[in-house]
Amino acid sequence: MENHEINQLGSSLRQIKQTSIRSGEAGAVRLWYQGGEPYFDIFFELQDDHLRWFQFTLRGKSLSWSQRAKNVQTGTTDEPRINDTTYYAGSKLIQTNHTVDQNFVQLVRAILQTRADEAVFQQAIALLDSQVQT
Prior knowledge:
This protein has helices at 3-12, 102-113, 119-133, and strands spanning 14-15, 28-34, 40-47, 50-58, 61-66, 72-77, 94-96.
């Protein structure tokens, strides 16, 4: 993907009102950023300002990380397909890859880097960097 497209994707991210989002656990805060094209969004879950979970989806691909699993997973989503489940905007099924798609990890990192002045994006970048080194 060209640098100008990466920059456009990063700058298109808009935070959705927090009152619309519920977190799974007490004290956790969930942030949702929606991009300027269909099938592009990022969810972050923080506890005491520390990243506990995040999920990045773009064009039918997914990257996720959780503090419990402690590893990055990539996969595909059913979002671009039309069926009974995807008819509802709040539904998304993710099928995990058997091996991590390193090219997608690098693309995600590059898009996150366009927002590196924001703390939650910095944390996600650092996390991806630590995963690459292991």
